[in-house]
Amino acid sequence: MRHEKPSISSPSMLPVESPVKPFIIPVFIPHAGCPHQCVFCNQKAITRSEAQAPSTVQIEATIRSYLKYLTPSRKPVQIAFFGGNFLGIGRREILRLLDAATTFVREGIVDGIRFSTRPDTLTKDRLEILHGFPVSTIEIGAQSMNDAVLAMSQRGHTAQHTACAVHLAKDRGYEVGIQMMVGLPGDDDAGAISTGRQIAALCPDFVRIYPAVVLEHSLLADWYSKGQYTPLSLSAGVSLVKRLYLMFQERSIPVIRMGLQATVDLENGSILLAGPFHPAFGHMVIAEIYRDRAIELLESSGRAWDAVTLCVHPKRISTMRGLKNENIHYLKNRFDIRHIEVIGDPLMSDHHLSLVVDS
Ligand code: SF4
């Protein structure tokens, strides 16, 4: 719908969707290479797997099953070893995993390989193992840049390890992503924002932000049952991750994931005891940014409204409305508005919002 009435546009830019969407084929290696279990972690529960790393036959089957869903618009295609500490695995096992994935790269079906690893195992010696393999991206699990928080989470590394690992991987020409967490024991909002700033200063190519949740058979679950740990609420988690998202956006660092990947067990609650999990967590963060921009617009209009029309690009209508129309309910209550309509204008850029006004 194209509106002809005058409008007031939001002065602040809204999140921009990346036109490039990589196709990532996850191969889970639950806890493989981990020196111990960090307090918040239970990869076996998340991935529903007991095995440390799948067999070569299983890896090939996983990759082929994912490739069925590959569409031409998704580029690059990468095989990703997630759920463990890749560079902490024994050398022969790393070579086996890389060989299995490289077969698909040589066939021209896949573009490259990525993996996640702890910062303290990303060393010159370990990087040598990758020589000659088509590894393009390394994701470093920093989680926090506060050493006290890292110690409380029993990570076994410091913020300095993360800084060194990022520099080392970047010097070797790898694309580098950093994973951080919010809601860790001993952390708070100010601490998480400080971690975000320190991570941004390392200039990663992208970040992922995960809220800590209480998973069964984790040490955090014990602490939670004894009242020694309280997770973030969902709304507090969304608001905090929103602040981090905006901070990274301001520095042009893409946030490629917010919130845990939904699995059947997480969604049905069988392994999740508490914490800010929602399958649409990332959507909720972006929707809250849209809500904030709408608040700015309504406040800057300097008048009360009986009914208003908000205009966005058509693909952003559901974001503006929020999950279950939460944004609409919120704005109606806050500004005492009887009716709010959200319309789509294909001529609008996807990072603008305007308030259509009666002349
Ligand atoms: S958080 Fe990473 S290093 Fe710690 S136990 Fe889980 S997979 Fe291993």
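^ iron/sulfur cluster complex. The first helix runs from residue 43 to 47. The chain has 13 helices and 13 strands.
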